[in-house]
Amino acid sequence: MTSLSILAAVCGLTMSMTSPPTDFTSIPPDPAEVEQSLSATKMSLSQAVGAAKKAANGTAIDARAILSGELRYEVTVGSGGIARKVIVNASTGAVSAPVLTIQSAMEIANKKHAGVVRSASFDFTAEPAVANVMVYGGGKAFEVVVNANDGSIVSDTEKPRFPGTPITGELVTMPVTGPDGGTVNLQYFDIVEGTGPMPSGPQATVKVHYTGYFTDGNKFDSSVDRGQPAQFPLNGVIAGWTQGVGSMKVGGKRKLVIPYQLAYGERGRGPIPAKATLIFDVELLEIMGAPEAPAAPGTKPNGK
Fold it and tell me: Residue 105 in 3-state DSSP?
């Protein structure tokens, strides 16, 4: 491994965090205009770095002038093993630097919900820098985002246990034989009980709408977003779908919680990481080629 690749491996987090995003939306600024704008400011970039270092009590990692809007300097300062983003107003010299500690952020969030804190972390790449705090209170979970500069609450969001469609029913556990012959628990919530037929077996072909999530709530696939239902034989998909969808009735909606043994296994596939538990909201629309359900007593075929 070269010295450069070793440096990248060791410092990759800092490098990716501090590198500014590339702007592909506009043409490069006119050099004469840039020179004129920077020359007319009360404070130079060098002076801004000095002010930022003093405010954050650390060492400058990178610095740049932000020319869009009110001219300002953005300086990343390393302090206590953490990179902090400091903003310096080029006209007034006013410095905006994170002053909140993790403990004070936790106290602010916990006061909001009078519960217990599970985790807290800073995001110094945000503007303004924030602290993200997970609080559990009243049987619910909340993500409280606190402004690291002044301690104000930026957002307060209830975080459901499972992403996607809200659930109210009970979690059902279905023992399934895993790929190694052992028993693996597939779990699900019935959101809507179907009233139509069930698939005849693994050989049945079904039409569904679905949305897939990782356990952190990030969506990775959705036929709903594409506006096109998916159609497949039940024996041609992951085992969690074969069993979980195969036991539904047409018209039903179910939230499947599929362990990795019944999904994409220890290696994963494509965007699915190794050993990933997956969560799907699935609606069974139709069993392809299945006979129509018999008409209810007292009605004529096709409702006529």
Answer: helix
CATH code for residues 32-97: 3.10.450
The CATH number of the domain covering residues in 102-158:
3.10.450.40
Give me the pLDDT at residue 149, please: 85
Determine whether 210 is an active site residue: yes
61 is catalytic: no
Marked catalytic residue, from 264, 272, 279, 287: 264
Choosing from 87, 108, 238, 258, which is the catalytic residue?
238
Query: By mean pLDDT, which of 19-33, 53-67, 72-86 is the weakest?
Result: 19-33
Q: Where in the chain is the domain with CATH 3.10.50.40?
A: 172-287
Centre a 10 Å sphere on the Cβ of residue 138 and count the other Cβ atoms it contains. 9
Q: How far is it, in rounded angstroms, from Cα 83 to Cα 1?
A: 27
CATH 3.10.450.40 residue ranges in the chain? Answer: 102-158
Mark 176-198 as b/e (b = at least 16 C-beta within 10 Å).
bebeeeeebebbbbbbeebebbb
Q: Is 280 tagged catalytic?
A: yes
**Which CATH architecture fits 172-287?**
Roll (3.10)
The answer to whether residue 238 is catalytic is yes
C-beta of residue 234 within 8 angstroms of C-beta of residue 248: no
